[in-house]
Amino acid sequence: MRPFIVAIDGPAGAGKSTVSKLLARRLGLSFVDTGALYRTVALSARRQGIATDDDAGLAEVLRGIRISFRATGEENRVYLDGEDVSSEIRTPDISLAASAVSARPVVRAGLLGLQRRLALEAPVGAVLEGRDIGTVVFPEADLKFFLEANPDVRARRRYEELFQKGSESSLEAVLADQIKRDRDDASRAVAPLKPADDAVRVDSSSKPLSEVVQQLERTIRAAMASR
Ligand code: DC
Protein backbone atom coordinates (compact mmCIF):
# COMPACT_ATOMS: atom_id res chain seq x y z
CA MET A 1 0.00 0.00 0.00
CA ARG A 2 1.34 3.44 -0.80
CA PRO A 3 2.26 5.66 2.18
CA PHE A 4 -0.52 7.75 3.72
CA ILE A 5 -0.14 11.31 2.40
CA VAL A 6 -1.23 14.40 4.31
CA ALA A 7 -0.96 17.78 2.51
CA ILE A 8 -0.73 20.95 4.59
CA ASP A 9 -0.75 24.14 2.52
CA GLY A 10 -1.17 27.79 3.39
CA PRO A 11 0.54 31.18 3.50
CA ALA A 12 3.70 32.04 5.45
CA GLY A 13 3.21 32.22 9.21
CA ALA A 14 -0.11 30.34 9.34
CA GLY A 15 1.51 27.78 11.63
CA LYS A 16 2.15 25.08 9.01
CA SER A 17 5.65 24.16 10.23
CA THR A 18 4.75 23.87 13.90
CA VAL A 19 1.57 21.95 13.16
CA SER A 20 3.12 19.66 10.53
CA LYS A 21 6.12 18.75 12.66
CA LEU A 22 4.00 17.95 15.71
CA LEU A 23 1.50 15.93 13.68
CA ALA A 24 4.25 13.92 12.03
CA ARG A 25 5.82 13.12 15.39
CA ARG A 26 2.56 12.20 17.09
CA LEU A 27 1.36 10.04 14.22
CA GLY A 28 4.68 8.35 13.39
CA LEU A 29 4.77 9.91 9.90
CA SER A 30 7.69 11.50 8.05
CA PHE A 31 7.79 15.27 7.74
CA VAL A 32 8.63 16.87 4.38
CA ASP A 33 9.28 20.61 4.54
CA THR A 34 8.99 21.56 0.86
CA GLY A 35 9.68 25.26 1.53
CA ALA A 36 13.13 24.22 2.74
CA LEU A 37 13.80 22.81 -0.75
CA TYR A 38 12.98 26.14 -2.43
CA ARG A 39 15.05 27.94 0.20
CA THR A 40 18.05 25.67 -0.38
CA VAL A 41 17.86 26.19 -4.15
CA ALA A 42 17.78 29.96 -3.52
CA LEU A 43 20.81 29.72 -1.22
CA SER A 44 22.78 27.64 -3.68
CA ALA A 45 21.96 30.06 -6.52
CA ARG A 46 22.97 33.00 -4.34
CA ARG A 47 26.31 31.40 -3.51
CA GLN A 48 27.00 30.76 -7.18
CA GLY A 49 26.08 34.33 -8.14
CA ILE A 50 23.04 33.20 -10.15
CA ALA A 51 20.13 35.65 -10.33
CA THR A 52 16.67 34.51 -9.20
CA ASP A 53 15.30 35.02 -12.73
CA ASP A 54 18.16 33.33 -14.63
CA ASP A 55 16.35 30.17 -15.75
CA ALA A 56 19.37 28.61 -17.46
CA GLY A 57 21.50 29.24 -14.37
CA LEU A 58 18.78 27.87 -12.08
CA ALA A 59 18.49 24.73 -14.23
CA GLU A 60 22.23 24.27 -13.74
CA VAL A 61 21.87 24.71 -9.96
CA LEU A 62 19.10 22.09 -9.89
CA ARG A 63 21.13 19.61 -11.90
CA GLY A 64 24.04 19.76 -9.47
CA ILE A 65 22.23 20.14 -6.16
CA ARG A 66 22.06 17.52 -3.41
CA ILE A 67 19.54 18.30 -0.67
CA SER A 68 18.88 16.01 2.27
CA PHE A 69 16.99 16.12 5.55
CA ARG A 70 17.90 14.61 8.88
CA ALA A 71 15.68 14.57 11.95
CA THR A 72 17.80 15.11 15.07
CA GLY A 73 15.63 14.97 18.18
CA GLU A 74 13.20 17.87 18.02
CA GLU A 75 14.85 19.40 15.00
CA ASN A 76 14.81 18.82 11.30
CA ARG A 77 18.14 19.73 9.78
CA VAL A 78 18.59 20.54 6.09
CA TYR A 79 21.81 19.76 4.21
CA LEU A 80 23.14 21.20 0.97
CA ASP A 81 25.82 18.94 -0.47
CA GLY A 82 26.43 17.59 3.02
CA GLU A 83 26.66 21.01 4.71
CA ASP A 84 24.10 21.90 7.39
CA VAL A 85 22.35 25.03 6.06
CA SER A 86 19.31 24.92 8.38
CA SER A 87 19.90 28.40 9.84
CA GLU A 88 21.23 30.04 6.72
CA ILE A 89 18.12 29.25 4.66
CA ARG A 90 15.86 31.02 7.20
CA THR A 91 17.24 34.57 6.93
CA PRO A 92 14.84 37.28 5.64
CA ASP A 93 17.05 37.70 2.59
CA ILE A 94 16.87 34.02 1.58
CA SER A 95 13.11 34.01 2.33
CA LEU A 96 12.56 36.61 -0.38
CA ALA A 97 14.97 34.87 -2.76
CA ALA A 98 13.13 31.56 -2.16
CA SER A 99 9.83 33.20 -3.03
CA ALA A 100 11.41 34.60 -6.23
CA VAL A 101 12.92 31.28 -7.41
CA SER A 102 9.69 29.47 -6.52
CA ALA A 103 7.91 31.50 -9.22
CA ARG A 104 10.20 30.02 -11.93
CA PRO A 105 8.64 27.01 -13.70
CA VAL A 106 12.08 25.45 -14.14
CA VAL A 107 12.52 25.35 -10.35
CA ARG A 108 9.02 24.02 -9.64
CA ALA A 109 9.42 21.28 -12.23
CA GLY A 110 12.91 20.48 -10.97
CA LEU A 111 11.72 19.96 -7.38
CA LEU A 112 8.54 18.03 -8.16
CA GLY A 113 10.12 14.58 -8.41
CA LEU A 114 12.17 15.08 -5.26
CA GLN A 115 9.12 16.14 -3.22
CA ARG A 116 7.18 13.08 -4.36
CA ARG A 117 10.10 10.75 -3.76
CA LEU A 118 10.73 12.04 -0.23
CA ALA A 119 7.09 11.33 0.64
CA LEU A 120 6.77 7.99 -1.14
CA GLU A 121 9.94 6.70 0.57
CA ALA A 122 8.29 7.13 3.96
CA PRO A 123 7.68 3.80 5.71
CA VAL A 124 4.15 4.63 6.96
CA GLY A 125 3.22 7.98 5.53
CA ALA A 126 4.22 11.61 5.27
CA VAL A 127 3.03 15.06 6.21
CA LEU A 128 4.06 17.48 3.45
CA GLU A 129 4.02 21.15 4.17
CA GLY A 130 3.99 23.75 1.36
CA ARG A 131 1.89 25.87 -0.96
CA ASP A 132 0.83 23.51 -3.75
CA ILE A 133 0.96 20.07 -2.17
CA GLY A 134 -2.79 19.45 -2.44
CA THR A 135 -3.11 21.04 -5.89
CA VAL A 136 0.05 19.93 -7.74
CA VAL A 137 2.47 17.68 -5.84
CA PHE A 138 -0.13 15.23 -4.45
CA PRO A 139 -3.57 16.02 -5.90
CA GLU A 140 -4.50 12.49 -4.78
CA ALA A 141 -3.34 13.02 -1.15
CA ASP A 142 -5.34 11.08 1.44
CA LEU A 143 -6.07 14.28 3.35
CA LYS A 144 -5.59 17.96 2.54
CA PHE A 145 -5.61 20.91 4.90
CA PHE A 146 -5.30 24.61 4.13
CA LEU A 147 -4.10 26.55 7.16
CA GLU A 148 -4.91 30.24 7.37
CA ALA A 149 -4.63 33.11 9.86
CA ASN A 150 -5.04 36.84 9.49
CA PRO A 151 -1.94 38.78 8.32
CA ASP A 152 -1.24 40.45 11.67
CA VAL A 153 -1.30 37.18 13.57
CA ARG A 154 0.97 35.55 10.99
CA ALA A 155 3.48 38.41 11.04
CA ARG A 156 3.61 38.37 14.83
CA ARG A 157 4.28 34.62 14.89
CA ARG A 158 7.07 34.96 12.35
CA TYR A 159 8.50 37.95 14.25
CA GLU A 160 8.56 36.00 17.54
CA GLU A 161 10.26 33.09 15.79
CA LEU A 162 12.96 35.34 14.27
CA PHE A 163 13.38 37.20 17.57
CA GLN A 164 14.03 33.93 19.40
CA LYS A 165 16.74 33.20 16.87
CA GLY A 166 18.41 36.53 17.61
CA SER A 167 17.20 38.45 14.56
CA GLU A 168 16.86 42.20 14.90
CA SER A 169 14.13 42.60 12.27
CA SER A 170 11.24 44.79 13.43
CA LEU A 171 7.62 43.64 13.39
CA GLU A 172 6.93 46.23 10.67
CA ALA A 173 9.72 44.83 8.47
CA VAL A 174 8.48 41.27 8.97
CA LEU A 175 4.94 42.35 8.03
CA ALA A 176 6.16 44.20 4.93
CA ASP A 177 8.17 41.16 3.74
CA GLN A 178 5.18 38.91 4.41
CA ILE A 179 2.81 41.11 2.40
CA LYS A 180 5.21 41.03 -0.54
CA ARG A 181 5.71 37.26 -0.31
CA ASP A 182 1.96 36.59 0.01
CA ARG A 183 1.26 38.70 -3.05
CA ASP A 184 4.02 37.05 -5.11
CA ASP A 185 3.12 33.51 -4.00
CA ALA A 186 -0.59 33.99 -4.75
CA SER A 187 -0.18 35.81 -8.07
CA ARG A 188 2.50 33.75 -9.81
CA ALA A 189 1.47 31.97 -12.98
CA VAL A 190 2.60 28.47 -11.99
CA ALA A 191 1.13 26.68 -8.98
CA PRO A 192 -0.08 29.81 -7.16
CA LEU A 193 -1.01 29.55 -3.51
CA LYS A 194 -4.66 28.52 -3.37
CA PRO A 195 -6.65 25.94 -1.46
CA ALA A 196 -7.46 22.68 -3.26
CA ASP A 197 -11.21 22.26 -3.78
CA ASP A 198 -11.22 19.29 -1.44
CA ALA A 199 -9.00 20.82 1.27
CA VAL A 200 -10.26 21.26 4.82
CA ARG A 201 -9.75 24.94 5.65
CA VAL A 202 -8.60 25.75 9.16
CA ASP A 203 -8.25 29.30 10.50
CA SER A 204 -5.79 29.55 13.39
CA SER A 205 -6.12 33.32 14.02
CA SER A 206 -7.91 32.96 17.29
CA LYS A 207 -6.97 29.52 18.53
CA PRO A 208 -3.67 28.17 19.81
CA LEU A 209 -1.75 25.91 17.45
CA SER A 210 -2.03 23.08 20.01
CA GLU A 211 -5.77 23.11 19.38
CA VAL A 212 -5.24 23.03 15.62
CA VAL A 213 -2.92 20.03 16.04
CA GLN A 214 -5.52 18.17 18.10
CA GLN A 215 -8.25 18.86 15.55
CA LEU A 216 -6.11 17.69 12.62
CA GLU A 217 -4.77 14.70 14.54
CA ARG A 218 -8.29 13.41 15.19
CA THR A 219 -9.21 13.74 11.52
CA ILE A 220 -6.01 12.06 10.32
CA ARG A 221 -6.25 9.17 12.80
CA ALA A 222 -9.82 8.49 11.69
CA ALA A 223 -8.84 8.54 8.01
CA MET A 224 -5.81 6.29 8.59
CA ALA A 225 -7.93 3.80 10.51
CA SER A 226 -10.57 3.62 7.80
CA ARG A 227 -8.19 3.26 4.88
O1 DC B 1 7.22 27.68 3.64
P1 DC B 1 8.46 28.56 3.42
O2 DC B 1 8.26 29.95 3.94
O3 DC B 1 9.69 27.92 3.98
O4 DC B 1 8.63 28.64 1.83
C1 DC B 1 9.63 29.42 1.22
C2 DC B 1 9.14 29.91 -0.14
O5 DC B 1 9.01 28.82 -1.04
C3 DC B 1 7.78 30.61 -0.10
O6 DC B 1 7.91 31.99 -0.43
C4 DC B 1 6.95 29.97 -1.15
C5 DC B 1 7.78 28.88 -1.75
N1 DC B 1 7.13 27.58 -1.71
C6 DC B 1 6.39 27.21 -2.80
O7 DC B 1 6.25 28.00 -3.73
N2 DC B 1 5.83 25.97 -2.86
C7 DC B 1 5.96 25.12 -1.85
N3 DC B 1 5.40 23.90 -1.92
C8 DC B 1 6.69 25.49 -0.70
C9 DC B 1 7.26 26.74 -0.66
Brief rundown of the structure:
With 227 residues, the chain is an alpha/beta fold. It is built from nine helices and eight strands.
Explained architecture:
There is one protein chain. With 227 residues, the chain is α/β, with parallel strands linked by helices. It has a single domain (4-220), classed as P-loop containing nucleotide triphosphate hydrolases (Rossmann fold), CATH 3.40.50.300. Helix content is 51%, strand content 18%. The strands form two sheets. The chain has a five-stranded parallel β-sheet with strand order 2-6-1-7-8, with helices on both faces. Strands 3-4-5 form a three-stranded antiparallel β-sheet. The mean pLDDT is 94. 2'-deoxycytidine-5'-monophosphate (DC) binds next to helix 2, helix 4 and helix 8.
CATH class: Alpha Beta
Structural domain tally = 1
CATH homologous superfamily placement: P-loop containing nucleotide triphosphate hydrolases
Question: Can you tell me the CATH topology?
Answer: Rossmann fold
Rg for CA atoms? 17 Å
Q: What distance lies between the first and last C-alpha atoms, to the nearest angstrom? A: 10 Å
Overall morphology: globular
Q: Count up the helices.
A: 9
Strand content: 15-25%
Within the largest sheet, what's the order of strands? 2-6-1-7-8
Q: Structural class from helices and strands?
A: alpha/beta
Q: Output mean pLDDT.
A: 94
Reading the helices and strands in chain order gives EHEHHEEEHHEHEHHEH
In the CATH hierarchy, what is the architecture at level 2? Answer: 3-Layer(aba) Sandwich
Helix content: 40-55%
**Which ions and ligands are bound to the chains?**
2'-deoxycytidine-5'-monophosphate
Characterize the main sheet. Answer: 5 strands, parallel
Number of strands: 8
Low-confidence stretches: none
